[in-house]
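User: Just a sanity check before I run the rest of the batch. Below are the structure tokens for the first item. I only need the designed sequence back.
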């Protein structure tokens, strides 16, 4: 029986492959990423200093046994070391031609700086003297020797590194020099002695002179560092399993610090910040590896290396190319040049920004390194989101956090970064921004429809209440405004115009910053960077995504500007135009209120007629922009009281006005005031009448359309008059009328009957045939369950998953999201917020039933989704699986949805 291999020479990759069954992922598991890539580089002929890897299995064996090397591991290490001696012609511990090695940690997943590495193992008093003979460079040798004592001391023995650094600083001071490199051989020799003393005084033993003992202790230290606090914390944060273990890579030392014909550096095969082709990195002449990262000396740009080391630089470029061709990924490499000869010490997939990731994926596909499909799968939806909003520069974020300027955190409901002056009312937001050109952040406890003009004028929105689908969140996302909502630590005092956050008192006019990606709130301003949605690589990538996806991507847009943006971002239709949004605008709200308040039918008709003029123009604008693409207009949905002032506010105003009468001098003024009071009283009475216990389940949607038939008739007239007008202008108009909140098929039948009559009437008047459809929203469980009956009267379904989730769960989202829902998710009672990600088991099941039943009656039934979920990648995947025709989301999420839909289709295919 052959013995178990705990140790593999770098060139024994084949044996390891046989052992794990050939999978690269398992090789990385066994060798760690660093070891696997070192072995792989050797296999493809890249110059790597000889060495071997002690496996993660050995590490786990050691840790399980409570600190004993397993089986024949150590014997195998010594055997492998002999192999390295033969390869290099050097001998470990030999006085004339000593072999030095590094002992490097390396786990399956990169854990930068979390575990330990010791360099220059094998140096002792004798070998150091031998190396001075050999190299004639005492300065180099004693610098290397003190580094060994220092690293070994701190890493293996736990001596605080400052103890050593203090000595170096003192030496620099005494010698009157600024940099370590200016210190002489004598200095380093002297410090080596001092380091030995430090070592002894801290550990009560001498620095081990036996190289084998050094290696033994260093190997143990690397194994143990797997369970160091740093490493454990990092794994918890990065979601890496704790039972993987680290490998140990023992590798022949090469020296970048033997003179000016030596160097060391790190380089990426392409730019990590923007993805440009060509090497990006730093190097240092006459230095050892860790100096580059440590920032002791100013590094030089890697491109400078073409001047100082033309040969080595050319080779580095060729290796970069070779590695990319081999790994099909951008690489992050460590290298050292020893006496002009280039050695590679590490390679791994390079970290990059979202912008760089997109460019690199597209470039690599164009270069034939990967397929288009590979490029599309490689990019995540979050990376696309990056392009759509200004972001805080990462350094600026770090700085602000470290300075303690991050004062609160809420829900990150609309991405992007914003800084500006705090304002507490919509009107002030508008006037400061429009008249004074100031950037403002609108801060409210929560927002209402009549705050929208302020939100539009603001850079960003911050609220102390509300959840992911609160008014503030929805509107902010709709308009691409960064927003943070539900920041419970904010105590807003609207009267004094200030807010308290912990210790901080923030007044109106103070500057704050909000990060809609993280939900953080900062004092003061942060630096921003603006990514570009017109990025040519992004455009290519998304067009490839379009080739793969089968799900349509539409947008929710109420105004022509939004529709135009949606179209620019690639939307194939409008899946939801909320027709009542227009009623909230300044000139129209009074008209709408007049309509609600009218006691006489004729007054109501007058008001509706005036509204008709406005609505027709609204729809005409939308149809023009969407020329040739379908537009779904949802008829009025919200309960009427939303259009009236708040009941409590009305009461307060009234009592205030009544009090004012006493202080009013002239009779005519009193008369005027009384008149105003009478008007307000009427509004109050009506508002009181319209007050409902559960407005969400009350007089809204189709119920409203049946109750006030002329209202929805007016809307349909406006749609068809606009359609005829725009058709005459030469556009192709494809209107679809959507009736909301249907629970029973009869509701739809009745409403559709009367509305379709109106539509036909308009088309007759106008002498134009419009291609139209009537359909409904499926947003109540009963509708989903009786979808076959409903489909009799509906040519399309659109799942309104916001309401469907509310009514399926019996949860009012606005209340719940800032309340118990957070607790539920936190305690793991719900896996995630069902308003952010579709609840597959419940809501998803209802949707599937609805699709199945609906299509049984009407096989060509078009089914889409227009709830917030339509822009959520995980929900999009579910929608694809259910066989929906399209998803409709906010214009700003259209590019994300295009990619997510492609991912869903590709996943499905494989
Ligand atoms: P980390 O994972 O923290 O980067 P490494 O094991 O890569 O740790 O080693 C730290 C530094 O030492 C790196 O700059 C690396 O290039 C350098 N280094 C490691 N082994 C050798 C070696 N055999 N010869 C020269 N430099 C080395
Ligand atoms: Mg390390
Ligand atoms: Mg490294």
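Assistant: Here's the designed sequence for the first item:
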């Amino acid at each position: 029986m052959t013995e178990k291999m705990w140790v593999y020479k770098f060139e024994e990759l084949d044996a390891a492959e046989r052992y794990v069954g050939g999978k690269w992922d398992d090789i990385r598991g066994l060798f760690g990423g660093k070891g696997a890539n070192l072995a792989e580089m050797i296999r493809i002929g890249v110059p790597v200093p000889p060495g071997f890897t002690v496996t993660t299995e050995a590490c786990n064996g050691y840790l399980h046994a409570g600190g004993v090397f397993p089986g024949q591991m150590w014997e195998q290490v010594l055997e492998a070391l002999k192999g390295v001696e033969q390869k290099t012609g050097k001998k470990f511990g030999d006085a004339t031609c000593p072999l030095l090695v590094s002992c490097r940690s390396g786990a399956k997943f990169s854990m930068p700086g979390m575990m330990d590495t010791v360099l220059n193992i094998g140096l002792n008093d004798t070998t150091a003297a031998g190396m001075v003979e050999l190299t004639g460079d005492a300065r180099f040798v004693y610098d290397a020797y003190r580094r060994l004592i220092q690293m070994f001391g701190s890493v293996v023995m736990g001596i605080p590194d400052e103890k050593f650094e203090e000595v170096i600083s003192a030496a620099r001071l005494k010698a009157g020099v600024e940099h370590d490199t200016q210190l002489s051989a004598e200095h380093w020799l002297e410090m080596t002695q001092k380091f030995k003393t430090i070592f002894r005084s801290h550990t009560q033993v001498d620095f081990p002179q036996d190289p084998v003992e050094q290696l033994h202790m260093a190997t143990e230290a690397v194994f143990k560092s797997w369970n160091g606090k740093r490493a454990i914390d990092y794994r918890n944060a990065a979601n890496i399993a704790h039972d993987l273990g680290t490998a140990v890579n023992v590798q022949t030392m090469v020296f970048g610090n033997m003179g000016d014909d030596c160097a060391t550096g790190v380089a990426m095969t392409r730019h990590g910040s923007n993805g440009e082709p060509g090497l990006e990195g730093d190097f240092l002449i006459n230095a050892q590896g860790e100096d580059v990262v440590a920032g002791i000396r100013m590094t030089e740009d890697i491109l400078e290396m073409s001047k100082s080391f033309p040969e080595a630089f050319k080779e580095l470029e060729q290796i970069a190319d070779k590695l990319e061709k081999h790994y099909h990924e951008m690489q992050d490499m460590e290298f050292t040049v020893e006496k002009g000869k280039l050695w590679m010490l590490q390679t791994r997939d390079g970290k990059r920004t979202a912008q760089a990731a997109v460019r690199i994926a597209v470039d690599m596909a164009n270069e034939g390194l990967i397929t288009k499909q590979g490029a599309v799968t490689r990019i995540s939806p979050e990376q696309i989101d990056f392009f759509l909003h200004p972001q805080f520069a990462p350094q600026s974020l770090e700085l602000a956090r470290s300075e303690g300027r991050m004062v609160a955190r809420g829900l990150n409901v609309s991405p992007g970064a914003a800084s500006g002056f705090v304002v507490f009312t919509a009107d002030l937001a508008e006037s400061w921004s429009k008249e004074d050109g100031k950037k403002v952040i609108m801060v409210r406890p929560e927002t209402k429809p009549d705050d929208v003009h302020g939100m539009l004028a603001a850079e960003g929105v911050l609220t102390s209440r509300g959840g992911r689908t609160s008014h503030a969140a929805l509107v902010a996302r709709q308009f691409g405004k960064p927003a943070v909502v539900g920041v419970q630590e904010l105590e807003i005092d609207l009267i004094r115009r200030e807010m308290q956050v912990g210790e901080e008192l923030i007044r109106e006019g103070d500057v704050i910053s909000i990060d809609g990606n993280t939900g953080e709130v900062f004092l003061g301003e942060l630096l921003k960077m603006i990514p570009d949605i017109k990025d040519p690589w992004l455009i290519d990538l998304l067009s490839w995504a379009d080739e793969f996806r089968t799900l349509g991507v539409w947008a929710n847009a109420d105004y022509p500007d939004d529709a135009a943006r949606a179209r620019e971002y690639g939307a194939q239709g409008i899946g939801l135009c909320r027709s009542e949004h227009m009623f909230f605008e300044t000139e129209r709200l009074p008209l709408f209120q007049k309509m609600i308040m009218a006691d006489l039918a004729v007054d109501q008709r007058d008001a509706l007629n005036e509204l008709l003029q406005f609505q027709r123009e609204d729809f005409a604008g939308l149809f023009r922009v969407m020329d040739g693409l379908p537009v779904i207009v949802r008829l009025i949905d919200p309960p009427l009281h939303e259009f009236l002032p708040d009941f409590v506010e009305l009461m307060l105003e009234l009592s205030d006005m009544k009090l004012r009468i006493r202080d009013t001098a002239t009779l005519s003024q009193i008369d005027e005031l009384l008149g105003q009071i009478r008007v307000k009283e009427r509004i109050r009475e009506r508002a009181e009448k319209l007050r409902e216990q559960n407005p969400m389940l009350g007089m809204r949607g189709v119920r409203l359309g049946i109750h006030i038939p002329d209202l929805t008739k007016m809307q349909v007239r406006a749609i068809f008059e606009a359609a005829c007008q725009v058709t005459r202008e030469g556009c192709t108009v494809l209107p679809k009328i959507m009736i909301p909140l249907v629970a029973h098929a009869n509701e739809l039948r009745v409403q559709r009957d009367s509305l379709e009559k109106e539509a036909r009437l308009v088309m007759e008047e106008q002498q134009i045939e419009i291609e139209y459809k009537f359909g409904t929203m499926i947003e109540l469980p009963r509708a989903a369950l009786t979808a076959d009956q409903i489909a009799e009267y509906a040519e399309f379904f659109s799942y309104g998953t916001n309401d469907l989730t509310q009514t399926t769960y019996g949860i009012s989202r606005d209340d719940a999201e800032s309340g118990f829902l957070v607790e539920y998710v936190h305690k793991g009672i719900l896996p995630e917020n069902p308003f952010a990600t579709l609840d597959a088991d419940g809501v998803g099941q209802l949707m599937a039933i609805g699709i199945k039943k609906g299509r049984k009656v009407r096989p060509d039934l078009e089914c889409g989704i227009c709830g917030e979920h339509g822009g959520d990648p995980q929900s999009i995947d579910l929608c694809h699986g259910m066989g929906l025709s399209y998803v409709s989301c906010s214009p700003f999420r259209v590019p994300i949805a295009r990619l997510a839909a492609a991912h869903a289709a590709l996943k499905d295919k494989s």
